[in-house]
Amino acid sequence: MAVAVEMLNISKFYPGVIANDNVSLSVNEGEILGLIGENGAGKSTMMNMLYGMTQPDEGVIKLFGKEVHIQSPNMAIKLGIGMVHQHFMLMPNLSVLQNIILGNTPTKHGLIDVKQAKNKIEEIMETYDLPISLDEKIYQLSVGEKQRVEIIKALYREAKVLILDEPTAVLTPQETDKLLDVLRELKKRGCAIIFITHKLREVMAITDEIVVMRKGVVTGSLSTSEANTGGLSDMIVGRKVDLEIPRGEYQPGETVLNVENIHALNQRGLPALNGVNLKVARGEIVGIAGVEGNGQAELIEVISGMLRPTEGKVILKGEDVTNKDVRQRREDGLSHIPEDRLGMGTAVNCSIRDNLILNRYYQRPYCKNGILDNKKLHQLSEELCKDFGVKTPDSTYKLGTLSGGNMQKVVFAREMDANPDFLIAAQPTRGVDIGAIESIHHKIMEVRDSNRGVLLVSAELDEILSLSDRILVMYEGEIVAEFKRGEADERTMGTYMTGAKRQGGENNEE
Ligand SMILES: Nc1ncnc2c1ncn2[C@@H]1O[C@H](COP(=O)(O)OP(=O)(O)O)[C@@H](O)[C@H]1O
Ligand SMILES: [Mg+2]
To answer: What number of H helices and E strands is found in the chain?
Structure first.
């Protein structure tokens, strides 16, 4: 097969950072290249240059053997390059159809030819088994569905080269399997694919070639058939990684969170929670496992104060907070690492520093008589960056310049600095690299070991199993099973997660 993309001796300099230092990679038609490396390694920067979002300072890009200067995404699209971004680039208030044809609308006698567009899209959905309702608005879609729209959009533009930047970070295991099938089909049809991921299992399963980056340089370039996960993690991190987290003895103390018989509706006004009861004690991590969309998001919203339940109570440290707002609950000792860190957790156009202090700008000692003490704020934010390993030259940089994992560290640092009695961690390591996962897991364990409570919600069963003292499984708005640490394995949990089984329920098969 012919070579599709060559990026040769590429360098890209940002103030204070060499994002890419003499990096080369290539990918053939009908081939999948896995691009892996820690957060901040320079992967997205490489791909942003291929997609024309920014230009290299040095080096050459060739497409099907011809040198190209890709000045803009529009030009990249015309050259047959498609990209599914880490953070979706869709218009939330427009429909799926409008988003797909945006900027590439077929016309007939000067009028938009919707029928032709629809036919083409339906053919793509059929070929790759990517069903979606074209009339829904983007904001109504789940993350997995939004990604599907991005992929269809690229295929609609007839991409011959497809870049996917951490596409599985936001997906459930089932959605991930589905995506890998789509990629296999694309490969069969001759598409050249560059696939960025943190998950070595996926790299081993689907790629043909692998390029490993660390701190802007290539630290490994090999065929997947010659690779193994141990060797790859060492190339990624540059040292041996230990994913076993040490934990103190399990000594649950007083109840810090008590959720009683919660009923709630989702955004569309449909029942999402149907009588949820749960408790979290000091000194314990309670994990909630479940396929996404079974009420976990609404449960977190109810506990953190963003969603009013239609029935039931939330009791924090013995006090009924059901009618208190988010800020009051924070002041009562609740911290929350939200799942959607771009939407809810952060402001990308503000500085890292401002993001670190978003939730306490109104408090002393940072604010006296309504005036912010900039020096103190700067000191604090520099310290937090150091403590939590946020990789940035200066905390006055915009948050948007950070990689996904580093943004997550900022959110984490901010929430931990509030010194919570009770922490909600929702998908805390989603899209985060191996080294950062290690440090975030240690920090979560520190919360537990310092006699505070943690509610961990994660779609990663590995994460739930390795951290939790107790595990609850959610299915269709209810807790259908509970396990003590060590009692459950992935397979058993899977049968409850899919609703095939429930403890003590009417369809109990035990
Ligand atoms: N627009 C930008 N301005 C300044 N620095 C940037 C910008 N984009 C990326 N960087 C920096 O370049 C480095 C590589 O980032 P990135 O390519 O996003 O890494 P990865 O995708 O591997 O996590 C990081 O240190 C990041 O902070
Ligand atoms: Mg990236």
So the answer is: 16, 24
